[in-house]
Structures are given as C-alpha cells and as structure tokens.
C-alpha cells in the first residue's frame, strides 16, 4: 500500500489543472452560445410561426396532423385546418367560409395566441358565414357610412393590431377529404373592399 501511494498517490501537477480549467471554461462558453442561439432558431409565438405558411390575408390549408409532425401545437388529427394571418394596419379583414362538414368552427386569435372570438357552423343555417374584423377606429368609420352588405356579416371589433384566423373542419372519413379540402382552399380571407372604407 505504501508503494502504491508513493507511485500514484501524488496530486496532478499544475499543468493538468490548467488543462482541466481550460476545458471547463471552453465547455461553459459553448453552452452559453447554444442557449443564447436557441431563441433565434425558434419562432417566438404561434403568430410568427403562422407567417411561415404563406402570405398574410390568405387562407393556407395546413397539412394533416400526424405524430411528431404537427404544423402547430394542440391540433386534433380528426380535423382539417386552414389558417390566415392578418394585420389591422392594412385595413379591415373580410372572412367568408362555407364548409361541407358535420362540424366546423372558426376562431380568431391575437398575436399572443389567445382566443379572442370563436363560433361554429351552428351560427348559420346554410353552413356558410361571412365576418368582418375591424379595429375601433375602422368600426367608427364604418358606422358613419355603412355598406349595403353589412347586415349579412358578423362584425368583430378588435383592439389588437395583429392576429390570425383558424378554421377547423371535422373529417368523418377519407371519402369527405376531396370535398372538404376544396372548401378549405376556397375559404376567403381578404381586405374588405366596401365603399365605406
């Protein structure tokens, strides 16, 4: 035992200590760089992620929801989806949908991903609806000179400058898919071209 401690029991020299310290510092720097670079690689919000689906003020049909390849979090695989991002800086937004599905709904979200308005196909007898999204200022202008088709639309006032609309449609079987996909592709999300605004 005494021979062992004579041969191997001494402490590492200063050279090994410096190499170990340099390794720890290098690992720490790499760790900090990776942690700081993650936010730039990941969208800050769902609103920013929606921008990757295509231009604003246009519905984009999302791919089917499959395990580990969800286009957005918390989507139901039994549904099909279309999404439209908008900014109120570009004027009011008109949305028109008509979906041949046993159940469908549309929800409006603000730029923080919080639901600000939601309705479903039970709102309209013919499973079609048109809505107009406006800011407070745009709504006051609209009231001064209301357009003829105003009574046909659901008016939604928002205090948020940015948001997105998400249409959900239940797919009862694959036989419905062509008709359902066509209806989602035909959904309208556009600038309102009424004469009042």
Query: Are there runs of 5+ residues with pLDDT below 50, and where?
Result: none
Number of helices: 5
Helical proportion?
A: 25-40%
H/E order of the elements? Answer: HHHEEEEEEHEEHE
Secondary-structure arrangement, i.e. CATH architecture of the largest domain: Sandwich
Tell me the radius of gyration.
28 Å
Instruction: Work out the strand percent.
Output: 25-35%
What is the terminal-to-terminal distance?
94 Å
Shape: elongated
Structural class: alpha+beta
At the fold tier of CATH, the topology name of the largest domain is Immunoglobulin-like
How many separate structural domains?
A: 2
CATH class of the largest domain: Mainly Beta
Beta strands, count: 9
Largest sheet: 5 strands, antiparallel
| Nearest-integer average pLDDT | 82
- In what order do the strands lie side by side in the largest sheet? 1-2-8-4-5
């Amino acid at each position: 035992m005494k021979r062992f401690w004579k041969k191997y029991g001494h402490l590492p020299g200063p050279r090994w200590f410096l190499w170990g310290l340099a390794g720890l510092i290098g690992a720490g720097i790499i760790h900090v760089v990776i942690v700081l670079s993650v936010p730039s690689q990941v969208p800050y919000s769902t609103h920013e992620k929606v921008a990757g689906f295509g231009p604003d003020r246009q519905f984009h049909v999302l791919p089917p929801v499959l395990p580990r390849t969800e286009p957005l979090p918390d989507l139901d695989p039994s549904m099909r989806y279309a999404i439209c991002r908008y900014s109120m800086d570009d004027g009011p937004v008109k949305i028109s949908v008509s979906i041949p599905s046993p159940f469908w709904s549309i929800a409006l979200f603000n730029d923080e991903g919080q639901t600000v308005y939601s309705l479903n196909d039970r709102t309209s007898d013919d499973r079609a609806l048109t809505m107009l999204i406006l800011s407070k200022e745009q709504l006051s202008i609209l009231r001064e000179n209301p357009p003829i088709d105003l009574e046909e639309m659901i008016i939604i006032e928002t205090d948020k400058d940015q948001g997105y609309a998400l249409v959900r449609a239940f797919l009862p079987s694959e036989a419905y898919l062509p008709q359902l996909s066509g209806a989602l592709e035909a959904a309208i999300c556009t600038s309102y071209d009424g004469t009042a605004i």
